[in-house]
Structure formats: C-alpha cells, structure tokens
Write a sequence for this structure.
C-alpha cells in the first residue's frame, strides 16, 4: 500500500454506469502519458459514448525508469487496464521531442533529420514515429523512448497500441472544433506543465506551438507574444480556452484581466457524455478526449 501511495495518486475518476467489462472488445482504450501524469479514457465505439475517465499524477517521478516503475505499480493494481482484448488502444505521449512537417516535404526515410531541427535526439534510446494529421496537410514526427514503447508492447503483446503525440491530438481536436466556430479565435490548451496555443483560419492551421510554464505570468507573456505575431487584439479577439484551469479560480480571474474576450471550450461534438461527467468541467481533458480522432 505504501508503494502505491508514493508512486501514483488518483486525482479524478468518472465511470458511466453503462460501462461493462464484458464489453471491452467493443471499447477503445485511450492512454495519455506525460512525464509526471497519466490519464485513461474509454470509448464505446458502437455508440461513440465516453464511458470512463481516470486522471493520475506521479508525484515522485523524475526519470524514465521511475516512470516505468510507476506504470508497473498502477497497471498491476488496476482492475482491467492490462486486458488484451480492447477493440483498439491509442497511447498519446506528452513530450517536447516533436516537429510538424508539411506533407509535401515529408519522407519517412528522414524522420531523424526533421527532429534535429527542433530538439535534441538520442538514436540509441529513442524510436521515431510519424502521425499523419487528418484535417491539415502536415505530419507530426515525434520521439518515443524505446523503454516506454517496449513496456507497452509487453503489456499488450496481442494488441499493439497506436502511438500518437499530444500536439497531433490537440491539432486534430482544435481543427474539428474550429469547424463550428465563426471568426478566427485563438485556441489555448493549458496543461499541468505546458501551454499550447493554436490558430485556425478558414479551415487551415495557421499556428501551433507549446511553451514550458514555470510561473503563472508565463501564460500571459506567451499568449501576448503569439497574439501580437498574429496581429490579434487582446481586447477584442476571441480566445477559446481548454485545460487545467477552473472557471472561478484565481488564475482565471488574473488571466481575464489581460484578455477580455475569453470563452471556455466545449467537449468534442463527436462524442456523447452522460450526466456522470457533469462533475468534470466541459473544458477539462480536451487532449484525452481528442485522442479518439487520431
């Protein structure tokens, strides 16, 4: 018990009463893995209904080995995560080792070369994965640690997961959301340790980047920087906000001082949610929900 308490902490759990372990073969398993947090989602693909959500943090993880150890403990204690008969499994990685490449310039033979432009890579310890984005002419190329990839392969030997990247997931999710939004809002996703900023205009992805946040003032600094580069007005331009920020939190009220026209984003329109999910604000877990699109 002590090892479990110090290795991971369950922050939130929501379970629709329609969830049935006997129906796992018709469910899609979504896993969202960061360096110190982890989310689980389950979708009934026959009904496009989101049935199950768990949100964990790893308070004492500071290395790749410790992350794998935390996953070992969590999965071993979990009632059904290790099941090998899911309809499909998708694993989204949150890391900074990625680059967006225009499809017209893309070749799978030079994945390493693309990443060298944007990040430090280690060919001995990392594998490199392309993700073709559905709604824009781009490919996300990212690195995944070989030990993490091997760990998932060991857990799911008969059901190979599809690996995607958080940036690709957010781009897919925002591109879908933008189809129902008039004008040209700035889209923001606030993660626990990062800020993601996107702009979509007339169905085209104009801007995507992520920023490491060390203090709250960094949010404002980076958002203002992006708005200025896109010729957006902080008083009149609309901002759509998702992520780990409460509607009545001090951080939100501070945020609102600088950007007046803020609206919280909605859940993906392609998924159904029962009243059980009312306990989670609609703008939370947008990246987890959007893995389904990748």
């Amino acid at each position: 018990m002590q090892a479990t308490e110090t290795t991971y902490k369950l922050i939130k759990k929501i379970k629709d009463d329609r969830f049935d372990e006997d129906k796992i073969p018709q469910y899609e398993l979504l896993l969202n893995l960061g360096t110190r947090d982890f989310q689980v989602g389950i979708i009934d693909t026959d009904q496009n209904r989101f049935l199950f959500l768990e949100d964990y943090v790893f308070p004492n993880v500071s290395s790749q080995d410790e992350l794998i150890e935390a996953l070992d403990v969590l999965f071993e204690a979990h009632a059904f995560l290790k099941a090998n008969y899911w309809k499909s499994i998708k694993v989204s990685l949150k890391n900074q080792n990625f680059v967006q490449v225009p499809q017209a310039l893309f070749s799978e033979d030079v994945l390493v070369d693309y990443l060298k432009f944007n990040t430090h890579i280690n060919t001995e310890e990392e594998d490199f994965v392309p993700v073709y984005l559905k709604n824009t002419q781009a490919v996300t190329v990212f690195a995944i640690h070989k030990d993490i990839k091997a760990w998932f392969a060991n857990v799911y030997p008969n059901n190979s997961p599809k690996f995607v990247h958080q940036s690709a997931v957010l781009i897919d999710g925002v591109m879908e959301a933008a189809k129902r939004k008039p004008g040209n809002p700035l889209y923001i996703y606030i993660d626990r340790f990062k800020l993601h900023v996107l702009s979509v205009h007339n169905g085209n992805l104009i801007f995507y980047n992520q920023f490491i946040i060390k203090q709250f003032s960094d949010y404002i600094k980076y958002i203002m920087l992006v708005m200025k580069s896109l010729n957006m007005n902080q008083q009149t331009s609309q901002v759509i906000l998702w992520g780990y920020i409460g509607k009545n939190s001090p951080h939100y009220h501070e945020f609102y001082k600088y950007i007046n026209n803020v609206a919280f984003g909605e859940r993906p329109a392609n998924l159904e949610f029962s009243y059980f999910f009312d306990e989670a604000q609609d703008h939370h877990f947008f990246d987890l929900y959007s893995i389904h699109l990748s």
Observations:
- The chain has eight helices and 14 strands.
- Residues 64-77 form the longest helix (14 residues).
